[in-house]
């Protein structure tokens, strides 16, 4: 079983009623205090995944990416490349 701590909502989202925006720095602050990996949640897209990954999140969901895609399968295949590109650019 995968266990993680959701941290968010990072951005305004339509997938959760009553969401509350949090500062992306929340991920950095809670990392030392929790025994499981933090996962940033809340309307994570190709356009903002780099900003979210920079917070040291261990993962991001793809609900928004898949839900808004004309070709969901392609979106799922391409999303890891967006993360890799961000990490390479940050070096």
Q: Could you characterize the architecture of this molecule?
A:
This protein has 91 residues and is mostly helical. The protein has a single domain (5-89), classed as TIM Barrel. It is built from four helices and two strands. It has helices at 26-31, 49-53, 63-67, 72-89; strands at residues 5-8, 38-41. A two-stranded parallel sheet has the order 1-2. Helix 1 links the parallel strand 1 (5-8) and strand 2 (38-41). It starts with a strand and ends with a helix. The mean pLDDT is 83.
Condensed summary:
The protein is mainly alpha-helical and 91 residues long.
CATH topology: TIM Barrel
Please report the first level of CATH classification, the CATH class: Alpha Beta
Low-confidence stretches: none
Fourth-tier CATH superfamily name:
Aldolase class I
- What is the CATH architecture term? Alpha-Beta Barrel
The helix/strand series, from N terminus to C terminus, equals EHEHHH
Please list the strands of the largest sheet in the order they lie side by side: 1-2
Based on CA atoms alone, the radius of gyration comes out at 13 Å
| Total domain units | 1
Give me the number of helical elements. Answer: 4
Whole-number mean pLDDT: 83
Q: Strand share of the residues?
A: 5-15%
Chain-wise SSE layout:
Blueprint: E1 5-8, H1 26-31, E2 38-41, H2 49-53, H3 63-67, H4 72-89
Parallel strand pairs: 1-2
